[in-house]
Backbone:
C-alpha cells in the first residue's frame, strides 16, 4: 500500500476541484499513541482525514482545527491539520467501544452524538484566525464537515471519508473532497452524481490495491483533471516537546510552583494530541522559580 499523501486537482474547464488523501499509516499511529478502541479509531481516523482534506482548500498556507462536541460517549474529538501535511488529534474517551450499527458498521454517529456542534478554527498563516460553528448533522464526521463547507463557505461539495480496521490494525483510511466551482453546470452535477453512485466504498478500493490517482479517476470519470502540485506527504506529527513544557511552567504563579518544590514533587505533563509524557525534575523547577 502506498504511503500517506495528498493530491489536489482541478477540472481544466473550471467546473470542479478535488482533493484526495490516503491516511492509513497516520491513523494507525494515532490508534497506537492513544490506545484507541475500534469505534474511537474510526471516529478519530475520519476526523483526521477530513481535516487533511479541508486544510488545503480552506486554510491554504495556514492550519485548521476541528472540534466535534456531541453528546455521545466518545466525548470531544479534536483534530488539527497544517499546510505542511501534518495532522494530529485525540478523542476525549478513547477506550469507549460500541456495538455495530444497523448496517454492520462501527457506530461513529452514536459515539460522537448529534446533540452538539462542530467548531472549526482557521488560521490563515498571516497572524489572523476565525472560528465557525455548525450543528452536528449525524456525528458521522463526513456529513458534519460537509455541512460546515456548505454553510460557512457557500460551496457545493461532496466529502467522503473512511477507515477500515481489522484485528491486525488499520488496513485502509482515506477520503475525497469534490467542490463545485463557479463555471459548473447542471451537467457537472449529474455527472458527479452518476459517478459517485457507482463509486463504491473508498476503503474497499484502497484495499484492492488502487492508488490515489486511480481512485480519483474512477470517482471523476468524464472530467479533464489537472494536478495542481506534486503529491504532498501526510503524517501524524505533534510539535510538543520537553522544552515547550518547561516554557509552559514559567507562566505558573510562583507560589504554586514553589508549593510543588516544597512537597518534593516533579512537574509532569501529558500532551493531549500525542500522549507524550514530560517530567521536569526539582532542580529545573527551582531554577525557574528563582528566575521569576
Residues:
Amino acid at each position: 500500500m502506498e504511503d500517506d499523501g495528498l493530491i489536489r486537482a482541478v477540472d481544466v474547464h473550471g467546473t470542479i476541484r478535488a482533493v484526495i488523501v490516503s491516511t492509513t499509516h497516520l491513523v494507525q499511529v494515532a490508534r497506537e499513541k492513544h490506545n484507541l478502541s475500534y469505534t474511537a479509531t474510526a471516529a478519530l481516523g475520519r476526523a483526521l482525514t477530513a481535516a487533511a482534506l479541508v486544510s488545503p482548500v480552506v486554510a491554504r498556507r495556514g492550519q485548521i482545527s476541528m472540534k466535534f462536541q456531541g453528546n455521545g460517549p466518545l466525548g470531544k474529538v479534536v483534530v488539527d491539520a497544517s499546510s505542511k501535511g501534518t495532522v494530529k488529534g485525540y478523542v476525549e474517551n478513547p477506550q469507549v467501544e460500541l456495538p455495530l450499527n444497523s448496517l454492520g458498521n462501527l457506530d461513529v454517529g452514536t459515539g460522537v452524538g448529534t446533540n452538539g456542534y462542530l467548531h472549526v478554527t482557521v488560521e490563515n498563516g498571516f497572524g489572523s484566525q476565525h472560528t465557525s460553528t455548525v450543528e452536528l448533522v449525524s456525528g458521522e464526521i463526513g456529513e458534519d464537515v460537509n455541512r460546515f463547507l456548505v454553510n460557512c463557505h457557500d460551496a457545493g461539495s461532496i466529502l467522503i471519508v473512511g477507515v477500515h480496521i481489522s484485528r491486525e490494525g488499520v488496513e485502509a483510511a482515506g477520503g475525497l473532497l469534490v467542490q463545485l466551482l463557479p463555471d459548473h453546470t447542471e451537467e457537472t452535477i449529474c455527472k458527479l452524481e452518476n459517478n459517485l453512485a457507482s463509486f463504491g466504498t473508498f476503503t474497499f478500493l484502497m484495499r484492492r490495491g488502487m492508488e490515489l490517482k486511480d481512485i480519483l479517476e474512477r470517482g471523476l470519470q468524464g472530467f479533464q483533471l489537472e494536478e495542481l502540485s506534486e503529491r504532498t506527504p501526510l503524517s501524524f506529527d505533534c510539535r510538543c516537546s520537553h522544552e515547550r513544557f518547561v516554557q509552559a511552567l514559567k507562566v505558573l504563579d510562583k507560589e504554586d510552583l514553589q508549593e510543588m518544590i516544597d512537597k518534593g514533587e516533579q512537574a509532569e505533563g501529558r500532551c493531549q494530541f500525542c500522549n507524550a509524557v514530560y517530567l521536569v525534575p526539582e532542580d529545573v523547577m527551582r531554577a525557574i522559580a528563582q528566575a521569576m
